[in-house]
Amino acid sequence: MPETSRSALEALREPLETGRIRIARAARQAEFPARFQLVAAMNPCPCGHLGSGTRSCRCTPDQIKRYQARLSGPLLDRIDLHVGVNALPPGELLGTGAAESSATVRARCIAARSRAHARQGRINQDLGPQELERHAHADDNALGFLRQAAERLGWSGRGLHRSLRVARTIADLDGAERIGTEHVAEALQYRPALAQP
Description:
This protein is mainly α and 197 residues long. It has helices at residues 6-10, 13-18, 61-68, 73-77, 90-93, 102-120, 129-135, 140-153, 157-174, 181-188, and strands at residues 20-25, 28-33. It has a two-stranded antiparallel ribbon. A hairpin with a 2-residue loop joins strand 1 (20-25) and strand 2 (28-33). This is Mg chelatase-like protein. It holds the Pfam family Mg_chelatase. InterPro entries: CHLI-like, Mg_chelat-rel_C, Mg_chelatse_chII-like_cat_dom, P-loop_NTPase.
């Protein structure tokens, strides 16, 4: 992702937020639907070895800071899930046990979408902030935990609502009617400090 031009990345902010894109050219304006799922990747530093247990990073702190700063806080704030993936040693890649099948995961996802539709008439991603608060059905302890984390980490309102949506989805995947502290705790893991504006 950081190898893409800054202007192209910043142009993603509007469609990620609204699901629409507005193009203005010579006194004319057009708006188009632009709902999409963004899957992006980046290395932790220019050489790609920062934090590796097997290879040394060759980058200076200034190079690392400049590299990571290519993605603006407002853009990162619009990305719901940030997942760190470390390189695995060959021994862990070979001879791994059987994982959950795609069919099992698919069935759980379909059931979670059905729960969301039955509860609110649309998927969690499509809920605005007020609708989200009305349909979240979170325990008081879970909301308190989320509020404390947002204050401690200095999240924007957007970051707070995105984490609540993710927690609602995790609860739906778990088959839970209400969002519990465990669902919020898992959602918090997907918004690391790097992702904060």
